[in-house]
Design a protein that fits this description.
about 350 residues, mainly alpha, Peroxidase, domain 2, two-stranded antiparallel ribbon, 4 strands, globular, binds protoporphyrin IX containing FE, binds 2-acetamido-2-deoxy-beta-D-glucopyranose
């Protein structure tokens, strides 16, 4: 089927033909197969309550403010796309280096507070045991589960989770704003660029199409859209892939290019509910970003967009599979890295 397109193989693997067969079955993630060291329930012995503690803090935060689910989900994505899922996204800048946190694609601060609160509880219960990278992965899973109606209403699985999350990641020691700018996809990226960026993380077309569905949650700000609305190319002021009336409405909301206060809902009216509504917007040329709309310009991703409109159940189960794939990107495991005691600074 068209959606089985595989990412480019890393060099050493490309030379080992017999492995190619295996590769089809088990994609290589970020070029290294350390995935066997990640598993569901890694902390079962060392910190049996780890997942319950994360869930409790996330549930409390979501109870206080429903909009926190979006930045929690986005944090894990930003973490995994820069240096692998190693919690580099949580590190503060130091005197000698500017961290990912302070790179241009700014993340919402609320979510950092939630991660810190989780870490504090876990350090009391099981000191130096649960990595910040795993906290990000579990918190993202919990956030998206709590935002999904069929999950909260008990129509999905009994355990209240959209998917099972793998753990066993270790934390890195480096965070770089420059790398964040170079590795994170841009909202003006077209389909080829998006496919290349995902492939460089070992992620395929299906991962791209289904993970973009994360934009069912949350908000954007005018600077992320400015070029699309007023200064797209020399030929077009406005991105021609954007519905004209929707574009006019967005231009009205973003009256000045530098306005960073106005919140633009990804899915107007339902930006705290995780569902397949995003795909209907994309099909109607009302995706917020050029990168959202780009899913229509490739046969395989376009088919997935229409498929998810027809079956929300398939979207939700594919989303879980691709979140697990993303959570494996270039992870540190075993004796690599460290388990930070505070997520914003490396251990001495
Ligand atoms: C495919 C490439 C992607 C691009 C180009 C992209 C770009 C963006 C941009 C520009 C924003 C808005 C930032 C702002 O103006 O405040 C945003 C928000 C968001 N993104 Fe993505 N993103 C992509 C993929 C993903 C993925 C894979 C996930 C998670 C699995 C994700 C989750 C989110 C969420 C939840 C928000 C809303 C955040 C909030 O409300 O605080 N995105 N994204
Ligand atoms: C956003 O990034 C700028 C640097 O580009 C930084 O000064 C600012 O504190 C960041 N804002 C948030 C909310 O993290
Ligand atoms: C439009 O984009 C060009 C090139 O990216 C830039 O040089 C120019 O300043 C922009 N104009 C406005 C009005 O933002
Ligand atoms: C947001 O906009 C205000 C006013 O235009 C400006 O002072 C502030 O620096 C901006 N903040 C960021 C993070 O860009
Ligand atoms: C990291 O930076 C934030 C914001 O600048 C600050 O509030 C926090 O105390 C710092 N964390 C650590 C552990 O230094």
């Amino acid at each position: 089927m068209a959606m089985c397109v595989r990412p480019l193989l890393p060099h050493p693997v490309r030379l080992l033909l017999p492995l190619l067969v295996l590769e089809v079955l088990a994609p290589v993630h970020g070029g290294y197969d350390k995935t066997s060291l990640l598993r569901v329930g890694f902390y079962k012995q060392s910190c049996p309550d780890a997942e319950a503690i994360v869930r409790e803090v996330v549930a409390k935060a979501v109870g206080d403010d429903q909009t926190v689910t979006a930045p929690l989900l986005r944090l894990h994505f930003h973490d995994c796309f820069v240096r692998g899922c190693d919690a580099s996204v949580l590190l503060n800048s130091t005197q000698t280096s500017t961290a990912e946190k302070d790179a241009k694609p700014n993340l919402t601060l609320d979510a950092f507070d939630v991660i810190d609160a989780i870490k504090e509880k876990l350090e009391k219960k099981c000191p130096r045991t649960v990595s910040c990278a795993d906290i990000l992965a579990i918190a993202a899973r919990d956030a998206v589960s709590l935002a999904t109606k069929v999950v909260t209403q008990g129509q999905w699985r009994k355990d209240g989770n959209l998917y099972e999350v793998e753990t066993g990641r270790r934390d890195g020691r480096v965070s770089s704003a420059k790398e964040a700018a170079a590795h994170l996809p841009d909202s003006f990226d077209g389909i080829r660029k998006l496919i290349t960026r995902f492939a460089s993380k070992g992620l395929g077309l299906k991962d791209l199409a289904v993970l973009s569905g994360a934009h069912a949650l949350g908000n954007s700000h005018c600077p992320s859209l400015e070029k699309r609305l007023r200064n797209f190319t020399a030929q077009y002021d406005t991105d021609p892939t954007l519905d004209a009336a929707y574009g006019a409405m967005l231009r009205q909301q973003c009256s000045t290019p530098e306005d960073n206060q106005t919140e633009l809902a990804m899915v107007p009216g339902s930006s705290t509910t995780f569902d397949a509504a995003y795909y209907s917007l994309v099909a109607g040329n009302k995706g917020l970003f050029h990168s959202d709309q780009a899913l229509l310009s490739n046969g395989a991703t376009r088919m997935l967009v229409y498929g998810y409109i027809r079956s929300e159940k398939r979207f939700l189960s594919d989303f879980g599979v691709s979140m697990v794939n993303m959570g494996r990107v270039a992870v540190l495991t075993g004796r690599q890295g460290q388990v930070r005691t505070r997520c914003a600074v490396i251990n001495n």
